[in-house]
Amino acid sequence: MITLEEKIARTQRLLQRLEDDRPYLRVRLSELDAEHRQSANAFAERVRAEAEAELQRLLAERGLSREVKHA
Known about the structure:
The protein is mainly α.
């Protein structure tokens, strides 16, 4: 079973990889027409937003679990 800390670390690595890939994504999409480029960019932004939301949820869960341990 994966621990909460491992989930947080994985999500942080995913966000970092997505950020590092932005310039390369732009290059890969440059060959596409405007509509496909816009669609691909929108998808990439949704993935980033979902990963960010997941990270925030995991961090909140970690904060709650720490509060319970101290209570």
